[in-house]
Amino acid sequence: MSADLRSVTELDRLIHEPARLLISTILSSVASADFLYLQRETGLTKGNLSAHLSKLEEAGYVKIEKTFKGKLPLTVCKLTSAGKAALKAYRQQVKEFMEKTS
Amino acid sequence: MKDNLVYVEQRVKRYWFKDGIGELAGGGLFVVLGLYFAGHEWLPPNSLARTLLDSSLILILIGGMFVTRWSINFLKTRLTYPRTGYVEYFPSQKNTPSRRILTAVIAMSVSLSLVLFGRFVGSFNWIPGFTGLVAGVIFIMTQARGGEGRFYILGGLSIILGLALSFSSLSESYSLGLFYGLIGMAAMISGGLTLARYLRENLMPAEGNNER
Lengths: 102, 212
Fold this sequence. Notes:
The complex is a heterodimer. Chain A is an alpha+beta fold. Chain A contains six helices and three strands; from the N terminus they run αααβααββα. The two termini of chain A are about 15 Å apart. The interface between A and B is medium-sized, with 32 and 26 residues.
């Protein structure tokens, strides 16, 4: 196998998982988004979304805060600088892989 | 994959326009401006009411923008965020104090140039057309920045109405009053219909749905 093809094995698997890639991409477009918005946009169940967010939070890619907007309680998620860097690197790796193999 | 990710990003940006609240509140401000300009036509010159009206433009603009912003936030907190979630956008990098001062200086220079141009040609009948063009470009740019298709209609309507009023025999104040009033009402109708559809399609979820 050529080094070009092998590079795909170096992808960040935490970001590579489709649901987490979608969550990261949504969060990279905004300053922050709440749990309900992410649930509606990703189409994931509450439990599934919560599990993926926990993995991203453990890796230091996402910061989760409980807050209020007026009287409305919110669980707000934010992509950290480490998360932004990881997503950027992932997109670059995939782009390079596609260019080399297509 | 790139296209899919770009689509996701654009969808997130479009979310702000999904409920029509921005148009509803912004349209209200336009209607108030319409009443301000029409007031010049309705109130007798040299009357106290007319003097008060003349000196209230800055108050209407600054107060109107404050009230518009507050009402958008109020309505979104009560109607949108509990239904489809809360999103906080990145603050615009252009919104710095120096950029704001520069914008104010440019706006004042343009206003002064327009007044001088009007005196030079001896007519201000073109102002509604110019205003319509500026408002139309803003609506179309809003569309390009991720707005919904309805902004093209508002942009087109703004340009056509502005030009039509410029060629009408109405006075400048009345033309501007009609322009702002009608565009404001069109924006409010567009926003109201969008909000009604949004509320119909997105019912309030059960309590505690925003918890992990």
